[in-house]
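Quick check before the chapter quiz. The format below is the same one you will see on the exam, so make sure you can read both the input and the output lines.
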Amino acid sequence: MILVITCIELKSPLKFFQLSIDAMQIMREMKTASCIGFKKTGFWSKHYTMTLWRNEVEMKQFARNGHHLKAMKKAGHIAKSIKTLTVVADDFLDWREAKQLLQEQNKVIVY
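Here is the expected output.
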């Protein structure tokens, strides 16, 4: 299975409201997609997600369509940076391990 770990650092804590609107739409779509599971954590201007997928094809199909694609296109308006990491895993990692992996081996988009 594929585990995707993401961290979005907001330009301002006030951008949380736009992030929340986008996240609600994405999560609604995720329920009808082939996503196995979803976890989130965060506070103030740093927010983390983990999603678990059966395979890379299903994960990419979701990421490149619908509300997720729309949110990614406008991410530069709310985010300072986005870090993402995709790993092979049987289940979710604990948050400490996920954050450490993300810090060490990530793909960073800086706006």
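If your answer matched, good. The mean pLDDT is 94.
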